[in-house]
Amino acid sequence: MTEVSSPRPPVDGSGSDRRHFLKACGAGLCAWAATSLAPTESQAAVRSGRGLIGRLESPYYQKLPGNEVRCTLCPNHCRVSEGQRGQCRVRENLGGRYYSRVFGNPCAVHVDPVEKKPFFHVLPGTRSLSVATAGCNFTCKFCQNWEISQNVPERTVNFHLPPAQVVRLARKYRCPSICSTYVEPTIFFEYMYHIGRLTRGPGLLNLCHSNGFINPGPLRDLAPYLDAACIDLKGFSPAFYQRIAGGELGPVLETLKLLRKLGKHLEIVNLVIPTLNDDLPTIKRMCRWIVEALGPDTPVHFSRFYPQYQLKNLPPTPVETLENICLAARRTGLRYVYLGNVPGHILESTYCPKCRRRIVHRVGYVIRDLKISGGKCAYCGLPIAGLWTRKKGV
Ligand code: SF4
């Protein structure tokens, strides 16, 4: 998974040294990671260094003859020989047993606006403690965070941050949610899972931004500890998935249907890349599928592409293209359609599907006005899909 393309620099821990990492973080919200923690935390939570890697046995693999293993976490189903790793680069066969090498060792730990994930229907205007490790199970040519997603954990600068510390930091920095993001969180499943379990006590939300490329079994196991998912639906053509993302469309559609069946709040992001996935009839087909399979209340974000990584040859998506797509998407019946990565655009805001009044006024990641009360439109009382209320004490 990649985080949705944005004009911002990538957020990662892959820089050549610690100074580079902090610079990449930006001096603002995430500088706390190195500067604001108490001495006890600086020993337990901030100890970091290049190649700091953990080891936790995965619950998702089968043993094969000759000390080989078959990973059952994602639809890649990697067959891995002793001493080797799966495609995601972070799961390793050691002596015929299969291990996550990134448990408790994120390379990116930031406090982000929840709108940046992007979740537009989850606690607007709040901050989300966001974590990622190295690795990914896709190879998107447009990845914004390729320096960590296409890397091994030995080459990123990693924190020692066990799940309990993540939860404690979220509370300390007044984040009502924790989000596994930046790369595909399935590849650090055990970390996301244990963080999720620990969010139940203090009433934090556990979120993820994912490419949806996960097997149904692990997803069902995660479900009790997951509140909402933002899924990249990168296109609606199997060929695009194979050629540009290094993945498959079918399992992503199955994940979306399962998340809906499990009753999770769901938002979808479609990054529109000129000439590669901007075909309007295909996008309309995708929207009709969303309406029928997931329901018209599913928020869908059509985001602007900016040239990066292996697609620097393409131009940014014309805003007019995105506007036409949003209009067409609305006509298929989708009720919450957003235009992403164009700060200040009128389609960043939420409008009530019934009375048409603006109920969330967004400018970039800033909430200027919020007219939702108790999960309903403050003007006409229509229930608005989403998670709008913090749990008590959070
Ligand atoms: S999680 Fe990693 S090792 Fe497992 S199947 Fe997917 S890509 Fe392969």
Question: How would you sum up this structure, described in words?
Answer:
A hairpin with a 6-residue loop joins β17 (350-351) and β18 (358-363). With 394 residues, the chain is of the alpha/beta class. The radius of gyration is 20 Å and the shape is globular. α5 crosses α6 (189-199). The protein has 11 helices and 21 strands. An 8-stranded mixed β-sheet has the order 8-9-11-12-13-14-15-16. It has a 3-stranded antiparallel β-sheet with strand order 2-7-6, with no helix packed on it. It has a 3-stranded antiparallel β-sheet with strand order 3-4-5, with no helix packed on it. Helix content is 25%, strand content 22%. It folds into 2 domains: 18-30 and 105-377, TIM Barrel (Alpha-Beta Barrel), CATH 3.20.20.70; 56-100, no CATH class. Bound molecules: iron/sulfur cluster.
